[in-house]
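Sequence decides. Our protein:
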Amino acid sequence: MTTTNIFNNENTLNYLNGFGNEFESEALPNALPQGQFSPQKVNYGLYAEQFSATAFTAPRALNHRTWFYRIRPSVLQGEFTPIDHDLLRSAPITESQAPPNVLRWSPFPLPQANDSQDFVDGLVTLAANGDVARQQGIGIHLYLANASMEQRFFYNADGEMLIVPQSGGLRLHTECGILEILPGEIGLIPRGMKFRVVLLDESVRGYICENYGAAFQLPERGPVGANGFANDRDFQAPVAAYEDREGDFKLCSKFMGQLYQADIDHSPLDVVAWVGNSVPFKYDLSRFNVINTVSFDHPDPSIFTVLTSPSNQEGIANVDFVIFPPRWMVAENTFRPPWYHRNFMSEFMGLIRGVYDAKEEGFEPGGASLHNCFAAHGPEATVFERASTEALKPKRYKDTLAFMFESRYVIHPTAFALNSPLRQPNYSQCWSSLKKHFTGDKS
């Protein structure tokens, strides 16, 4: 699959860090106008259309927009009408209470062959926070699909979509071109951009962070300096690729939490060329440069942040996307797994493959856990006992990949998630065998 590095080469500089630089791609030579974005006539009889992902007057460094040069403008479509989707939700969640208990779910099953569902059909909301109308917070969804979107297209007006495959690969056909993402990679679709999903396997499963707030960007490195974490050069955008198809198609939209559908007689992925800085991208998580301890104490999980969506309070994210990848654990005379903790931030975790070092039983690939603000959590009892006594030799975590959506807002589970038979009612029992080791004066 052809992609192009969009962040640090001669013509396409980084935009995730907010520099506002543009990059471009064209599927036909000279399809991009020279010197102006909307000339009187565009080559090949194309229409110029601006896609604005921020307000027109946003500061230059924060202003995201892309010019499309397309076969037909987006106004050529039918009227939207609501369609039902019982398991898709947006914040605020009002159907259930958000308990302070720690929560965990076993993997949700892949759809059966006799129950065909595409990417949109297979969206299931587990939790959300903030308020979609105020453009704060996130929605957390699973996707469970066994059919490709051939005659159907989708865009999300409520938030950008960070897609984290867990089982099976996806081919994302977008207005900017095509991206393939496999387990171990992530893909991001900007808010409002049209796309369809083709499955690379018979059935697929994964996680989605629907970000209502500020667009994801690379976190600051602070004292780490110029290199480390996720590096700009490793993010890739698609090259222009257009569909010139006519037929009986449907365009779906998620708008203010409701799903809508409109008739359209052509593929809306008919962009022949584009130029701008609001584009979909992919990233291979194996390229993340882990900065880990070599002296003592397990560092804060913030050192594993791949992307962040800042809030209006500096240093406190609307949401961080954090991973726990293969890495060396090297530290002297200290407890190496994550310590017991109670956090201001709320944490939703998923497991892509392998075993997470703090939870060796019950936290399975395709499953999930939720530790809301100030809910006590940490390594299970067996992990604590072993980590307290094992020889402190360098240790390699090989085949593992977990992630976390961490947010400043309480993450509110849906009624479906709370009542699901896949919710593990005895999750907290993983700490029940922790022993009292106190040796102080009992007098």
Residues 4-20 have pLDDT under 50 and may be disordered.
